[in-house]
Each structure stands twice: as structure tokens, then as C-alpha cells.
What does this fold into?
Amino acid sequence: MRIDMTKAETNGNGEAKPARGHVHEHVLRYMRRGLMVGAFLPGQVMSLRKLAAGLGTSPMPVREVLSRLVAANALEETRGGSVRVPKLSPEKLSDLFAIREMLEGSAAERAARNVTPALISELTEINAQLLTAIDKRDILGCLSSNQKFHFTLYEAAASDVLMPLIESLWLQFGPTMYMSLLIPSMPWNAADHDDILAALKDGKPAAVRKGIVHDIRTTCKALLSVAGPQGLELPFSQGPELQFDY
Amino acid sequence: MRIDMTKAETNGNGEAKPARGHVHEHVLRYMRRGLMVGAFLPGQVMSLRKLAAGLGTSPMPVREVLSRLVAANALEETRGGSVRVPKLSPEKLSDLFAIREMLEGSAAERAARNVTPALISELTEINAQLLTAIDKRDILGCLSSNQKFHFTLYEAAASDVLMPLIESLWLQFGPTMYMSLLIPSMPWNAADHDDILAALKDGKPAAVRKGIVHDIRTTCKALLSVAGPQGLELPFSQGPELQFDY
DNA sequence: AATATCAATTATTGATCACAATATGAGATC
DNA sequence: GATCTCATATTGTGATCAATAATTGATATT
It folds into this structure.
């Protein structure tokens, strides 16, 4: 949980030698993963000082990271200047997923055109991990594997324009995605991934796109089915502190 | 040029009363406009302290703004931690514009479905300003009017998911766009805008999308035609300081 | 008992400081 | 004359400080 870069390197006397220029990177990695993996709940306000204290650093690097996440629309700021995880209305959620279809469908199709045997075997391996995570009802494992599957596929599109946009979208629906998996009626499956892998092997970019779009659309429908009119509300209370490795 | 919020409000004694919580907003507006309007050239490194000094504030708000612009992919950081305006390779530029077609085409089509008489008259007015700016060879006026035309159209799509993504793209190609207009062979016209307005009046969303896509594609081709293999290079030197209102 | 008001705490914001790494420039050497 | 080296200056980073605004809690009043 702690970052505490003060002991990153030690000199001969064993004294602390603070590593410079990399604290905020660690904080950013922590926050990004936390958002995608559900460590922070929609509506939760992030206190600058408390986060910094919890991470063992000064408020300064946290400030920079929160600012960047606000710029990426992953967090929103209250009138008081605090930042919090946005609550998604059903309208915004379907908007988000409609644009996901467009962007990720395009990335998937491009990736299919650059497909290599190494990519296929890598994706197959990741999908296997996802299936075992589903079997074990491991929410964090599910989300992590699913995200890894999608992103390694999109990475093959080799577009450093598309990729940041997709990441921005994932950061936005990440917290809601996690909450949805907590709901009993939420379907757990990775059926579309097999179709995608098959289309990838056959060298059919259009089919790969179709598979991704179907996967996204299915997820969207499932999320909307468990979401109330004013956003997604958990039927039970959830502790704000949630452990995760990053 | 200066921001100098210390005199934003004065009390009865005429003493300075610093307005809190709005300095970085002004800096952000300044920088965003500066990027889109060509005040900063591709490759130019932005010094934190010099920018702050030039804007009449402490380095702190500038720090936050630069950080946010890096997060939005409008600026990139060097290994030294400085930030600079990215130089776009022809490949990245066409990638950028391909995604523009997708995103802005979609936004335009949605906007056409929500079209109102007020929107049409507003766009017509903006287009008139653009035409006079073209006549006067007023680069800043051109870019400003053109941007206003596109963004008021997209705003009618009423999507706060699509809008930030589009803004991110515009911030990325903004500096290059400005440079391109400096090149004599660059065509200056707004032919597509009339088609878009006509399609808007006829209530044909698909045609509106087609118009936007054609406009974007034309701009892309023009940019690529004047770009050398390793990015766009000006045939003459350009002073780094450029005045603009914001 | 419920609500409104007021005070105290706590929050972010902008400025300043200290430090280390980088970039810059002049000078010496080949 | 070109290049390498070293000293200087400048940069970003992380921490701390002062000031302001918002939130929370308690208290008093209806």
C-alpha cells in the first residue's frame, strides 16, 4: 500500500536517499490501477492529504496525479476543489459504451491486420487466466485479465492516438464496472473472447471488430440492467478501503 | 498577455485581493487557446518558471496546467522533465485525422438529429466570420472561427464523453495546423461548411456527417502535402513570441 | 425534537524553499 | 579549427508555509 520512495536506494551508510522524479509515477500507476480495478467507488471523494498520508508521500505528487486524472475525465472536481470518482448515469454509461464500440472496434480491426502468432498465443494465455478467474469468482482477477486481454489486442493496432483515448474511457467506467460485478444477477462470461481469437486466427479483421463490438454491447446491456434510474447503486454497504496489488 | 489575478478584485482601500481558485483556470484557458491558435510551435519547450513569470503568477498554477495538458496528450515531456509541444510525423498526423473523422463525424451526425433553428443561424453567423477572415488572410481569425464552427456544431450532440475526446485531438494537431496555414501552397477555403449547413437545414444527419468527414479529409490531405518526411518544417524562421488575445 | 446558526476544524490553493539533475556555455586541449 | 571537459546556470521535483474557503459539529432557538 505504501509507496515510500525514501528507501528506494540506500548509500553505503544505509541512510535514506530519496529517488527523485519518480514518486508521482508510482502514485499515478497506483491510482490508475485502483480506478480500473475498483479500489475506489463512484461518488467517493479523494482527500489529497489522506491519500498522501496513506501512500507515505507528501501531498505534492498526489496533487499532480489527481490533476492529471481530472484532465483525463477519470475524476471530477467538486465546487470545493476536492476531487471524487464520478457517478455514471445510465445515459452517460450508454454514451460511453457507444463510443467504446467505435474506438475499440476500430483498434481491434487494425490490430487484426497486424496480427502475429505471438499475439495470438499471448491473448490465448490471457484468456485462460480470465476463465480461471471467472471460475474462482475472483473479481479483481477477472477485471485485470479482461483489461489485459483488451489492451494487448488494441496495443497491436500500434496507434498512440487511439490508445490514450481508449484508456481514458476505461478509467471512466472502471469503478462502475467493478461495482456491477458485485451484483448477483450480473452475468460472468467471456464467450466473445473465443470468437475474437478464432477470427484473429482466420485473419478476418471485420469479424474481429464484430466480436469486440458484441463484447462491449453485451457488457453495456448487463450494466444497464443492474443500474437504477439515477446510476448504479449497491444493495449493500461497501467498505471504502479495499486492498489490491499494483 | 499577463494574467495577474492580484487585481481581479479590489476592496474599498484599493488594496489587492487575490481571487482564489481561479488562477489555474485562466492559465489553462490561455494555454489551450495558445495551442489551438498557434502561439506555441511544434518542438518548442515550455519552461515552467519562464511561463509563470510571463503570466505574472507563481510557478504553481502553471505546473498544474502543464501537467494536465500532458495528460491530455497536448504536450509531451522530455527526459529532463520539461514539457514541449510535440512534433507530428506524417504517420501520426494521418492517424489523428482518421480518428477525427470517426469521432467528429459521429458528433456531427448526432448534432444534426438535435438541430434547432437557433443552431443553424449561429453556425451561419460563424461561417460568415470565417469567410471574411479568409478574405483578409487573417490566420488567427481563420483558426478561431473554424474551431468555433466545429465545436458549436459538436456541442449540439450533447455528449460530454465525445466532447473531451475531440478537444484532446484538436489540442494535438492545433500547433501543426497553424504552421500549415503559413505555407503559401496551403489552400484556404471553407467550401464544405456550406454543404454542412445545407444538409443541416434539410435535416439529413448522414449528409452532415459526410460533409464533416470530407472537410476533415481535405484538411488532412492539404497538411500532408506540405509536410516533409520527418514532420512539418517551416521554410522560414518564426519568432517564438506571438501575440494573441484569449 | 427539529432546525438554523455559528464556530472550529479541515480542505485546497498559490507561493516559496531546498535539492538534484539537466542543459548550457566557456575554456582548454588536441 | 574542432572537440572534449568542466563550471555555471537553469530546470523540474518534492516539501513546506500562509491564507482562504468549505465542511462538519455543536449549540442555541423555535
Q: What stands out?
A: Residues 4-18, 235-243 of chain B have pLDDT under 50 and may be disordered. The radius of gyration of chain B is 19 Å. The beta strands of chain B are 9-10, 16-17, 45-46, 76-77, 83-84. The first helix of chain B runs from residue 23 to 37.
